[in-house]
Amino acid sequence: MIIGVPKEIKNNENRVALTPAGAKELKKQGHTVYVQATAGNGSGFTDEEYKAAGAEILPDIASVYKIAEMIMKVKEPIESEYSLIKENQLLFTYFHFASYEPLTMAMIKNKSVCLAYETVEKADRSLPLLVPMSEVAGRMAVQKGANYLEKPLGGRGILLGGVPGVLPAKVVILGGGVVGTQAAWMAAGMGADVTILDLSLPRLRYLSDVMPANVRTMMSNEYNIRTLIKDADLVIGAVLIPGAKAPHLITRDMLKVMKKGSVLVDVAVDQGGCIETCKPTTHENPTFVIDDVVHYCVANMPGAVPYTSTLALTNATLPYAIQLANKGWQKACKENNELKLGLNVVKGDVVYKGVAEAFNLPYESVDKYLA
Ligand SMILES: NC(=O)c1ccc[n+]([C@@H]2O[C@H](COP(=O)([O-])OP(=O)(O)OC[C@H]3O[C@@H](n4cnc5c(N)ncnc54)[C@H](O)[C@@H]3O)[C@@H](O)[C@H]2O)c1
Question: Is the pLDDT of residue 66 over 70?
Fold first, then answer.
């Protein structure tokens, strides 16, 4: 198969969909890989490294779309790319269709085959191509929180791990899923006093089994959250209710009881945020202060660490990309239900219920293409 990797052109996106190592794997399996010049620069991969791995470099984005049967990307195509996409071309990338109607309509119109990273789903309902970015964001949440607790950055001037003779900082984590677990590991490793809250008792049991002694678990409810945030130095928001807006677990009035210079990192901000006063910020301007509490609410945290994020993402996407390239999308999706669930728009039909419902569009079963 001919695979094309365009350079990401969305604002501030430095990741790339394939590493030189990935290009080499695809090449080994007999495929041809075209990479747009400088596509890997933002993540630290040079054109020379791609060439050495067996890929060919094309000078511009139009030539990549023109030649490729499968396009591998990170972010959804933006307006200037719509007209470059060809009928029957397979696009393997994040789409988040339900949040943007013009993108959905454009992909219906161009009759491409859109396989979305975010809806590839395992039998246990986990989302293998979202997990790596949650892992990055969870670990980064503690790094950022520790940073903003420093006095010159507006924090109360407390070191997360304390020192001998001085107590460590108190970290409260709302939600014990992927983000919350990774955040707990990092905060615990730095010596903080960590409490993690979740609604799921089995999840709390699991966390209680695997976490070190400086991580405690607590059932998530308003009473417990109100009690804990009075003493907290850093609060990390990491809840998710699939397919819904995050619930506001910390409301505006609750900020009043928090310590001056404490820090809130709301990782769930991309789903509306679980802290009422959080609104999305950017890496250029990541924080704001309300009631003397520092708020960090960057909606694309992994974007700040493109090297790690690219490797983490491509570790997860490459095995699927190889199946698609080896078998073609129809056979690959027929044989692997995880991939089949990734199909969202196929040759003009919306084949993912959530997308059809979001815009009141007719839904078609994808089975007619896989028969
Ligand atoms: N800002 C970013 O850059 C960024 C990056 C990656 C992920 N995220 C977001 O982080 C959030 C968490 O993602 P995840 O992968 O950890 O999800 P996850 O599904 O693995 O975990 C969510 C957890 O929240 C728990 N939960 C639900 N309601 C709760 C409540 N009321 N109180 C306490 N816990 C509750 C669930 O039981 C679950 O354990 C999502 O909104 C995701 O989109 C943001």
Answer: yes
